[in-house]
What we know:
By secondary structure, this protein is an alpha+beta fold. It has 33 helices and 37 strands.
Amino acid sequence: MMFSEHLQQYAEEKYQFHLPLLGERREEVERGMEACTADERVLMKFLYGTMPLRDAGEYGFDVFLGFVKHSLMVYRTMEWCREIPEDMFLHHILYYRINSENIEDCRRFFYDRLIERIQGLTAREAVLEINYWCAENGTYESSDNRTVSPMTVYRSGKGRCGEESTFAVTAFRSVGIPARQVYTPRWAHCDDNHAWVEVYVDGAWHFLGACEPEEILDKGWFTNASSRALLVHTCTFSDFTNQADAECLGRDDLMVYYNGTGTYARNKLYEIFVVDEAGNPVSGAQVSVEILNMAEYYSVAELWTDANGRVSITIGLGDVHVHVEKDERCLETVVSVKDTDRAVLVLEENDRLRDTWVDVDLEAPADYPMHPAKLTREQKEKNRSRIKAANQMRENRIAGYYQEALAGKYPEEKEILSAAAGNFDEIYAFLSKDENPDRRALLHSLTVKDYKDAKAEILESHLTGAACYRKEWEEKGRLDLFVEDILCPRILFEEMTDYRGYIQAYFTEEEKAAFRRNPMMIWEYVKTHIHFYPELDYQTIFATPAGALRLQHGSPLSKKLLFVGICRTLGIPARMNPVNLEAEAYVDGEFVTAGERSGGSSVGSDDGGSGGSRIQPEKGRVLLRAEDGSQWNYYQTWTIGRQKGNRFVTLDYTGIRFSDAAASRTLELNLEPGTYRLITTSRLPSGNQQASRYVFDLGPGEEKEVRMRLRTGKLEDMLVANMLEDFEVLAASGSEGGREVVSARSLLEGSANILAFLAEGQEPTEHVLNEMLEQQEILNQLDARIWFILHGEDALENRTLKKVLDAIPSIRVVYGRMDEIVEPLARRMYVDPDKLPLLIVTNPGMKAVYGCSGYNVGSVDLMVKLLKL
C-alpha cells in the first residue's frame, strides 16, 4: 500500500458518509470498488467521499477510475511526482475537477501529446515547454459563464481565462506536475476578474499565464494587475491535511479556500470586530468582504466572527465594502485597509436610509513591482518567435476542421459550422440527417459555445422528444414558444444532456398527465422530493435535470433547472427568467414563476383564462430619469438589486438602455414589490471609483420616479503615474530618408508627450484624427511632442492621416511592431489591449499620466487639459 493510514481512514470515513446519498449510482459504485486494486480503491473512495455530490449523479464510475489509474501511473513513472507530499498529490495531481468545467476522462490524451516533448527536461523546463504546447492549442476568447471541458478547449482552440487555466492545469497534472488554478474573484481597479495557474516545482509554487508562455516562471501580463488585487485565492475540494503555508479562508459549501494574496500584492492582516449597541462582542455574525465591480458589491470572502466578535483576513491595500449580518440585524460600510489596521463595527437593527442618494468613494490598491522580472533581448526574440509559430499552428489546426464543401450546402448555418471548430462533424451530422426544419431552429436556439461541444446524439434526442408538441403550438401561432421554450436543449449554463428520455421513463403516465394539467404540481414535486446538502456540493456547478432526479439532490438553482426540464419534456413552455433567474412556465397565456399559482391552471392557453389564484401581488412601476449625455451602461455604471433577506441580489438587465428623450433619458422597470437598491459608479483612470447608492421600497401597483445620479471626478482625478517599459520603434535617422531602431525612452526625454498608436482607416482612429483637426490650433501651440506610431509607411496614404500631418506639422511619425508593442502598454495603463487607437500621455520620459483605448468622445480635448495641469 503506497498511501498512509491517515489517508485510508479519511477516505473510508468520507466514502461511507456519502454512500447512502448516491441513489441510483450506489450499486454501480459498490460493484466498481470490488474490482479495484487496493491503491485504486483508496483513491476512488477519496474521490467519492469528497467530490461535489452533483458529480456522482452526472458521471459514471469509470470516468473517475480513469483519473485514478492515470494519476497512479504518473506517480510511479515521473520522478518529480514521487517527491511531493501526499496531500499535494491528492489535491493537485489526482483530482479530476479543477473548477466548474464539464468532466471528461482526458488525462491520457494530454499525456500522450506531451510526454515525448518533455523527455530529459527538468520540471521547471517542462513547465515552460508545456505552456508553449498549450499556446499551440488554445488561446483567449471572451464567452459566456459556462465552463467547457479541457477537451473542448483543445477541439475549439479557444477559451476564456477560466477555461484556459483549467486546460493548462490539466496538461500539467497529466504528466505529474502539481498544478492549481489561481483566481481573483474580482479586480479592484477594473471591471473584470482573472484566473491563472500555479505549478509546484523545485520545492515552491510558481505562477504563469495559462496558454501565455514566457521564457521564465513568475511572469505574466497580469503581474502589474495582480499587484493591485484585494484578494487572490486557490481552493481544494477537501480539507485533507490543510496547507500549513497558506491562510485558510474557510469553507464555502464543499470548497476549502486558501488566501494567496501575499504572493502577488502588498497586503496586511486586517481585523474586523463586530459589537452590539452596548459594545459587547457579537459572535457568529457573518462578515462578507465585498468588492465594487461591474457596479455591484461582489462578495469575495465570507467569514464568521469568533467569541470575541473578531474576523481577520489578509487583503490588499485598498478599500473594501463590508456587509455584516446576524439574525435580523445587519450593517454595511466601507473600510480602508491601506489607512487602518482594524475596524470596529456596531451591529444595529436593519434600518437603511431610504429615498436619498448616498455617496461613497472607493480607492483601489496602487500597483507595485512584486515580481520585476526582466528578459534579455534574446529571450524576448525567442518568445516572440515561438508564440508566432504557436499561433499559426493553432489556427491551421482549427481551420482544418471546417469542411467548406459540406458547409456550403447550408449557407445560413455556415457561421454555426465555423464556430463548431473541432465539433464540426457532430453539428453537421445532426444538421444533415434529414430536411426537418426544426433541426435548423434547434441549432439557432443554442449559444455559440454549445456549437463547440454539443453531441449529435443528444441534439437528436431533444428534437425527437419535442416533435409531438410542434403541431399544437404551430396551430396557436406560437412556434417561437415551441422553439425557444420546449425544443431548445439549453436551459441555463448546465451541462447539456438527454434529460427528456430519462424524465419520460422516470414518471408514470398518471403523474405526467397531472403535471400537464397543472404545471405548479411539478414545482411541488421538486420541492418535496429533491433535497440539498450545501456542505456536500459546489453551487457554482448545477445538476442536470436527470442528475437531480437520479440522486434526488440538487441546489436551489438545480431545482429550478429540473422544473424547466420536466416542463419542456411534457410540452409545457418553460424558461429561466434571465433577469432574476426564477423558473417560469407558460400558463394562461403568460409566463408564471414556479410556485406563483395554485389550483387548476389552464396550461399553455392563450385565451386569457384566469385558472388558479395569484399568490404574488401586482407589480410596481419604477421610472428612472437620467440627465442627457450620461453614460448608462448596465454592469458598468449602474445596477439595481432586490433585497432578499438582509442582502441585495443584483437583477440581470444586461443590454438594457435608457430611451433618448429630448429632455432626459428615461427607463421604465416593472418590478415585484419589495426593497431595491440602485448603485451607480464612475471608474477613474486610477481604478478608483466614485459611487452612489439609492434604496427605496416599492409596493404593489405603486409608481415611483427616481432621478439617477452619476458622479464625475475632477480633472486631476484622471491622472495616474504608471512607469512604462521601454520599447523600440523605427525612427528617421540623420541620413536623408534613412531609418534606425531607437528606444522610446530616448525619444521621450526632455518633454511631455502624446503617444498615438493608430489603426488608420478604422472608425475609432478616424474619430480621433478628426478631433485633432478640430483642435489643430491648440495642438500646434501645445508644449508637448505628439508621436504617431504606425505599423508601416503605407499608413501615410490614409487621407485623414495626411490631413492631420499637414495641419499639425510638428507631429513626429515612427513605426513599430504594433502586435508586440500595444498590448503590454495598454495593460500597463489598464485599458483594453484589443482596441485601437491607444492614446497615452507621458511626462518627460516613460512615466505615463493618462491612457485610453478605442474611441472616447472628447479624448483629444481631455489630453490637452491634462497636459496643462
